[in-house]
Design goal:
This protein is an alpha/beta fold. It is built from 9 helices and 12 strands.
């Protein structure tokens, strides 16, 4: 009997000692629809969130913001929406599918992604318009495409791309595969693919900065968990991950 009591006391004592180190009670499963350009950063934040909240699970659907907004408005099950532009967020809020007002949590700018070593020696937007130059852009209905059009207009350039992609990762893939000479992508995506591509900065990108809003969705199956994830993204730790990837604070 004495041995059993001693064992019980030791078990309770160990549980008490571990209280500070153990993760907090988990908020359950959270489904996040996020812009493709957030793939690397949000994947990291999702792992950190799960580690910090016992039992939490974060599931992601990464795609172009326009496609995600359409899916949400058609009833796709999601708890959180993070868009790469206010326009696509507005499509969700105006349809009555946001639980509150979206908050801008980061900003992003474009760069010219070229093959490693920049073999075509492209130094700015004007270098994309030469004879035979093959360039990939995002389609204008997705945020990276709208930003590209704004930047080209600011430079007074007309450009006919060889392909229009539905999200920034697809445009970047064309450079990585050697199918185009260059693509206009976000600085953060080029940084995430630095092993395969180089990034060429250009001044007109400052006039085409994209705001990234985030919101808990009205029909979220787990609104408390959704709010916890949004708060985590906006926390100091979340901002360290995002700015470390190249995003700018709003």
């Amino acid at each position: 009997m004495k041995l059993r009591i001693a064992t019980l006391v030791l078990t309770v004592a160990l549980a008490g000692c571990g209280g500070d180190a153990a993760p907090a009670a988990g908020p359950g499963a959270v489904t996040v629809f996020a812009a493709a350009s957030l793939t690397e950063s949000f994947t990291t934040l999702g792992r950190q969130f799960e580690a910090a909240h016992r039992g939490a699970t974060v599931r992601f659907n990464f795609a172009g913001s326009a496609a995600l907004a359409t899916q949400i408005n058609q009833g796709a099950p999601a708890d959180v929406f993070a868009s790469a532009a206010p326009k696509n967020m507005a499509a969700v809020t105006e349809a009555g599918n946001a639980a509150g007002a979206p908050t801008t949590f980061v900003r992003n700018q474009l760069v010219i992604a070229v093959a490693e070593g920049n073999p075509e020696r492209i130094t700015g937007l004007s270098g994309l318009t030469g004879p035979g130059r093959k360039v990939a852009l995002c389609a204008e209905q997705v945020p990276c495409g709208a930003a590209a059009r704004t930047a080209l207009n600011a430079a007074g350039l007309r450009l006919t791309p060889v392909t229009l992609e539905q999200d920034v990762k697809a445009a970047l893939a064309k450079v990585k595969l050697g199918e185009v000479d260059a693509a206009l992508v976000y600085r953060t995506d080029a940084a995430a693919a630095a092993a395969d591509v180089d990034a060429v900065e250009f001044p007109e990108s400052a006039r085409a900065t994209n705001d990234y809003p985030i919101v808990v969705l009205r029909h979220a199956a787990n609104p408390a968990g959704a709010q916890a994830f949004v708060d985590y993204v906006r926390s100091a730790g979340g901002m360290r991950v995002l700015t470390g990837a190249g995003f700018q604070r709003p």
